[in-house]
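Hi team,

Filling in the usual template for the complex we talked about on Friday. All components are listed, including any nucleic acid strands or ligand strings, so the model treats them as one assembly.

SUBMITTER: L.P.
PURPOSE: interface mapping
COMPONENTS: two
RESIDUES: 626
SEQUENCES:
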Amino acid sequence: MNPLLEIDDLSLTFRTEKGPAHVLDSIDLTMVPGEVVGLVGESGSGKTSLARAILGVLPGAQAEIASGRVRLDGIDMLDDGKATRDARGRLVTFVPQDPFDSFNPLFGVGTQLADIVRYRAPPATGHRLARSRRAREAMILDMLAAVQLPASRDLLNRYPHQLSGGQRQRLMIAMALLPQPRMLIADEPTAALDVTVQVQILGLLRRIAAERTLAVLFTTHDLGAAWEICDRIIVMYAGQIAEILPRKAFFAAARHPYTRMLLASLPKPGHQAVGIPGESASPLAPPPGCRFNPRCPLASQMCRTVRPLPSRSEEGHLLACHHPLPTAS
Amino acid sequence: MPDASPEPPLRTHPLLEVEHLSCHFPIRGLFGRRTGSVRAVDDVSFSVASGEALGIVGETGSGKSTLGKMLGGIIDPTEGAITFAGERLPSLRARRPFAVRARLQYAYQDSAASLDPRWTLRRSLHEPLIIHTNWPRERRDAKISEIVSAVGLADEHLDLYPYELSGGQQRRIGLARTLVLEPQVVIFDEPTSGLDVSVQATVLALVRDLHRTFKLTYLLISHDLNVVGSMCDRVAVMQKGRIVEVGPTNEVFAAPRHPYTRSLLASLPRIGGPRVTDRLVLPKEPTSSLGGDKRRD
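RESULT (copied from the run log):
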């Protein structure tokens, strides 16, 4: 299958008062349609910056692309031409972490969905008056059914504060799907939800991805959520990709020391996790070589000077480490 | 104990006992008339023995934070009694005695927000000691150094301001601030919400260490069943203001009796196991409940 998203050697720097912050360091990534990829890492690992680079919504004044390119369906997303502007919010859409902050509190949710249909969605096909209000409403009601909300006008007349967290997140997903995108970026979509609601939203996202062959990039620091929904998992540390591996391998055959330590930090009944000592590397002064070396128990002189390049260790398993752990744990 | 502490309670008495505790918030209608009430906590009873770790789990709106705040003396209960170390605590209108406030502490969810941004950490840590003790400065300094190293920070951190710390370090300072008075019981309200798993694990390991070394009794309020499972001897499950199940953690997790506990445990992602989303029949969102279900009477 042809890749939908191709990222080559992307390096991103933010200009800050304290000097340049090296947020992303030569990221390579491809995604095919219909694939759900999880982006896992601690805060400050560059997950959100990568998602924003794909969306083309980096803060223009501070962000500087040092190298690399991002191509989505053949369109250069770092460009500022018409093709790129048209692609944003149509070809690729975004589901935010907290839906409450993303709705306008002054308008009913129906109005906000209708605006998306009006300005972003392709015209409805098979309707006599494809651009009429009635056609728009039909599209919205279809979409509510798709995200398992009752397709009722009563719901559309409500304001965001009148809805529960799960309902709001479903509506956000509906809004993101209305432009009929090829790719969806979900930034911790379930972080603010209860466990019982979380599984429902995760199940919904996975089903939608399969039904619409939609590529989903799912950033999270919740490894349990990643296990539920992803086909492939990318582990990032301080702006570098540490390991890319299929879902099952992530939990059974991870070889990067960071991935292993992250897995060992998960709280489990009857198991006392210890965590990773030390602080995450600062993007202002990243350590040379492998950025994980100050916290890594296996770090050698080579790790402090030479950056490990991602290499393919097995099928679909990419690893950037000089001293990978053996598979059997 | 900063003050002369009373005799330790008899072993037969639980350290903290809660009987028929309720908290109802009024719903005001037109002209501020009371039109109903939300039963945030409804007739809750339990007890905590000395040295025990009790977990309280529940979803958003189950009343677990309200319960914690009533125990911490921040919200006044509508009904019921809290007995601490054999003494029945007065209601808030009569203000809690200082000695009780030092020994029964409530640790806020976001310790970063409860630190004064214009104060150095040293000043923030001195404050509880100034209020609760009449120690000279040197003794306070010594105590603060001790507690800061116990939570894994260096003395140099004391001259920083809260914004200069990472999230995990801020939680540690919050812990230090709670523990500097050597409380007997601490109520941790979501002590690790918003932290990365690696940092969460270090903060939780710290709480376990303190539990072991200082014989700290704590209540851990969390929505994360895995956290409670790894941290607590006993767990109480709350739903809609009531405790629906309480028991030893391993028993509740292995064989939950209440259907609500079962559904909570069933929605927990099990890494390495089958996907929960595969076997779950997804229920639709109810349309009738306006903004979640309020418990009215």
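MY TAKE: Chain B touches chain A through 48 residues (CB under 8 Å). Residues 197-214 of chain B form the longest helix (18 residues).

Thanks, L.
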